[in-house]
Amino acid sequence: MNIQDIIKTSGIEIVVSGEKMDIERVFAGDRISDLIHSADERTLIITHLNHISLVQLFNIFEVPGICLITDTDPICELIESAKENKAFLLVSSLEMYETCGVIYAIFQKGNTYQ
Amino acid sequence: MITGSYSVKKGDYLSGGQVSSKIKEILSKLGIASEIIRKIMIAVYEAEMNVIIHSYGGEISFVIDDEKIEVTVKDTGPGIPRIDLAIQEGYSTAPDEAKEMGFGAGMGLPNIKKNSDYFVIHSEPTGTLLKILILVKSDKDFSKVDSYVHVTVEKCKKCLRCISRCPTEAIRLYENNLHILSHHCINCNECIRICPTRVFDLKYYEKNCKEDKQKIFIAPSPWIASVLINYSWEEFEEEIYHKKGFKIFPLALWEDVLIEETQRYIENNEKVKFPLILPVCPAVLYWIQTEYPALIENIAPYLGPVETAINSFPEQRNISFVPSCPAQMSAINSNKNSNMGINMIPPQESYEVIKDICKSINKKKEIDKIHNIDGKKNESDGVITVSGIEQVKTFLENMEKKKLPIHIKTVELYACYNGCFGSPYWIEEPTMAKIIFDSFWKKQRQRYEKKKIDAIFRVSTINSRKGVRLDEDVIVAIQKLSEIEKINKKLPGYDCGVCGAPSCLNFAEDIVVMQKDINGCPYLNKT
């Protein structure tokens, strides 16, 4: 799935626009151990965390994008890191459960079309 | 070989992951597969954050060669009080500030364990040492055990004793060429013991010691016993320190600690699978891996005494050890870290050391009175000892069939009779040597308790060893199996060993797998 398709349809806001467009799955969580265990270059991360610890998901684990939720303003370090790594930094106005639901629906639709 | 070392500061969350990033950069330049890099990164990042969150600060170093990456994480305390809990998923002692940042989920060590091929942790209040090993070549089988038995074919008189004696049927004599099937060999001493012409010997003695402030000598009990028979240990110890600079640590220290720690493990854990096998003899562990994989879960979760002893001196560049069997050499080689300098002294040479040192000591005027002849020490610890290949074989078979006659909690299994005292490399009679040593140890142990000695929790899983597959393709493998059965029926079933294989069934397998000629059987056309 192209990350742009998700953004267009879901109403999620782009803070930093990236270059890694292809995503195969989405992982949502708030524990760094879970995130790094699931993170890879095709996984979009959804999280409550708005902390410098997320920077390593870009640097080391090369995730294509991170989506914060509930209209959180991302910290500067996260914005800078997303730019450096040419990754997406997104913010959803919804709660985690709803954000996941919206993206899940888009994924399902995408699969139906295929 | 590429090496590097970085320091990590306590509480420095802002820099968390920087060391991992640097290591990743190097790995990427080396062209290592991305899935391997990912495994390494998860393990190293978790370890780095553990140092930041839980320790007073530390250091992460790594060594990369063409086969593996070995990462050593060392901190300066305060240590992990309960490693058995710390490796359980969800157990966390992280402070609230770490939890607010998404850390402290209690997944650090479990994640490291999941992503490493080998993982050892050793902790005391002065610091924790974590060693992670990840294979860079994914095709290497970590359950593989190399044979440390050296074969000098020229000495072989073809008496065939070794072939019938080897407990795992690992020896073949085809076309005058005696060889060991390394996927079967458990590195016990049986072929070395039985051969009248000394065809077999320990394979290789690593000597990569460097100059160090201290020379550590880990002394096996039978070696100490051979000194005790004629000389006073105190004098000997003093003299060896003056002449050679060796500071002696009896291996028995780690054997005792292993028993004590296992007792604690039993008391603190509800889900212990009894009888618990103490990993005292590496040959028995290899045997279980090879022929009794169902019993792997009965092995107590600690490293054996030899591996623990070596790892108790992680920074030492001058550790000497006299192996009693090929299995101990194998255990050391698979558990040492690359910083250590190890000097394996051949047992024969170690006797020369004794002779040399004893020149200047007076012989004992009278032999010490010996107490504790019936070995009550073990009984009071609730540990049953079974020794000797035949006895251990019967015990393991009964244990596998759940047919042990009595309820046993903990068992020590030794491939050699009377444990390492029965190794063919020690010349003293094993029973007497053991009695002499036990009597000495009862009185002297407290002298060595000043240095803190711990058991090391075995965090990586012991896997069953893979034998040779008949074929990659299951259908072909089944065909080969039926072919083996057919050939086996043609053979006389004498298991005489004249063909060069230990049994007719082994010969039938070799005919199919190794393309041996069925006419190698001397009876085939006569029966």
Write the layout of secondary structure elements.
The complex is a heterodimer of chains A (114) and B (527).
Chain A: H1 3-10, E1 13-16, E2 25-28, H2 32-38, E3 43-47, H3 55-59, E4 65-68, H4 76-84, E5 88-91, H5 96-113
Chain B: E1 2-8, H1 18-29, H2 34-54, E2 58-64, E3 68-75, H3 83-86, H4 96-100, H5 108-115, E4 118-124, E5 127-135, E6 149-151, H6 161-165, E7 171-174, E8 177-180, H7 190-194, E9 200-202, E10 215-219, H8 221-228, H9 233-244, E11 246-250, H10 252-268, E12 276-278, H11 282-291, H12 305-311, E13 319-321, H13 326-335, E14 342-344, H14 347-358, H15 376-380, E15 383-387, H16 389-400, E16 410-414, H17 430-444, E17 457-458, H18 474-490, H19 504-513
Parallel strand pairs in B: 10-11, 10-13, 12-16, 13-14, 15-16
Antiparallel strand pairs in B: 1-2, 2-3, 3-5, 4-5, 4-17, 6-9, 7-8
Helix pairs in contact in B: 1-2, 2-5, 8-17, 10-12, 12-13, 18-19
Q: How does this structure look, described?
A:
The complex is a heterodimer of chains A (114) and B (527). By secondary structure, chain A is an alpha/beta fold. Chain A contains five helices and five strands; from the N terminus they run H-E-E-H-E-H-E-H-E-H. Chain A has a five-stranded mixed beta sheet with strand order 1-5-4-3-2, with helices on both faces. In chain A, helix 1 (3-10) crosses helix 5 (96-113). Chain A is globular. The N and C termini of chain A lie close together (11 Å). The mean pLDDT of chain A is 91. With 527 residues, chain B is α/β, with parallel strands linked by helices. Chain B has four domains: 2-135, Histidine kinase-like ATPase, C-terminal domain (Heat Shock Protein 90); 149-202, Alpha-Beta Plaits, CATH 3.30.70; 215-458, no CATH class; 474-520, Electron transport complex subunit B, putative Fe-S cluster (3-methyladenine DNA Glycosylase II, Chain A, domain 3, Orthogonal Bundle). Chain B is 37% helix and 16% strand. Chain B has helices at 18-29, 34-54, 83-86, 96-100, 108-115, 161-165, 190-194, 221-228, 233-244, 252-268, 282-291, 305-311, 326-335, 347-358, 376-380, 389-400, 430-444, 474-490, 504-513, and strands spanning 2-8, 58-64, 68-75, 118-124, 127-135, 149-151, 171-174, 177-180, 200-202, 215-219, 246-250, 276-278, 319-321, 342-344, 383-387, 410-414, 457-458. Residues 371-380 of chain B have low confidence and may be disordered. The chains are: A alpha/beta (114), B alpha/beta (527). The interface between A and B is medium-sized, with 20 and 20 residues.
